[in-house]
Design goal:
Layout (H helix, E strand, L loop, with lengths): L32 E4 L11 E4 L12 E5 L1 E3 L3 E6 L4 E11 L2 E7 L9 E6 L2 E12 L4 E5 L7 H11 L16 H4 L7 E4 L11 H10 L2 E8 L21 E5 L1 H12 L4 E4 L1 H13 L7 E5 L14 E5 L6 H10 L1 H13 L10 E4 L1 H4 L6
Parallel strand pairs: 1-17, 3-12, 3-14, 4-11, 14-16
Antiparallel strand pairs: 1-2, 5-6, 5-8, 6-7, 7-10, 8-9, 9-10, 12-13, 13-15, 16-17
Length: about 375
Amino acid sequence: MSDPRDYLLSSYDYALDPKCIAQIPVEPRHSARLLIVPKIGDDSSLARHVKVWDWQNELSAGDLVVLNDTRVLKARLRVRRTGGGLSELLLIEPLGEARWLCLARPAKRLKPGDYLWMEALEQDPIRLQVVGNHAASGGRIVQFPSDYVDRESIEVLLDRYGEVPLPPYIHRQNSDDKEERYQTLFATRPGAVAAPTAGLHLSDELLKGLTQKGVKQATVTLHVGLGTFRPVEKENLGDLQLHSEWVEVRQSTVSAVESCRTSGGKVFAVGTTSVRALEGAFCAGGGRLRPFRGPVDLVIKPGYRFGVVNGLLTNFHLPKSSLLLLVSALVGREKLLALYQEAIERQYRFYSYGDAMWIGPEAIGMASHS
């Protein structure tokens, strides 16, 4: 029987000392700590505490690991206003005809009709124009030159003028290798404005170890977008709506899932974005995983019945976030918050560069699946 508190945003709050927010990644990638969620019926104090490297011991030959292969765009642009002042744009999503929805700072200084200039060493300045406000996001609609209509050409432009946008809670942003360290090793499809951070833990050595063990790998693409930056604001979660994100689930991945199921293996997602992609395609397919390409606005919260995913490797997420709701749908809200408290007491590192949690099938129970 569901708990009414599961549908109240305030029930997903917890206190976190800012000192727990990881500012730099650990090296090597797989040396981050890993909290293994206990089996159903066990007390949360029986959680095991190992390293991400040890995750491979939790998997078996024939299992399938699904990775999000999105690559973070250099979507952060520093621009100069007509009066000479500096502003910052974060490209969120294309709106067609060389127009992009952007979060702006300071937004109040950017009004429809204003011109902006992008500048970079050894590059000619490029003029942009603010052409409108975007009420739903509080952002601005920005017109780029007509030469940059498609995604491929805008990627070239961003490579020349932009920066990889690290989350605002990461303050140490002066590392020479920050741009590549904020990418997964399997990031091949540009389009995200934030990294699928659980995948940051997977090193070449760990991926090779999984392969040698007989664990298969497949990829989906979910371009992390505006939803990452927008907090959940409604207290009543019963009719929660989230911003859509672009997803592609290819036939090769559908076939890999089917093969895994046929051989008795389990399907494990690396990161909440992989979960949303797989389950979004499953729902779009009418209760069957089929190839899918397009926007997904699926809300996963307690009460959701998973159709594809048997387990999840994930980071520790912000309070009152949609990602916390998703993970709660797997293990239960009260149990998850108790595990978070245990992680805080054991000084785990939180958020994008932080440590990880493994939710295996024994911690979920087949009752969670349709």
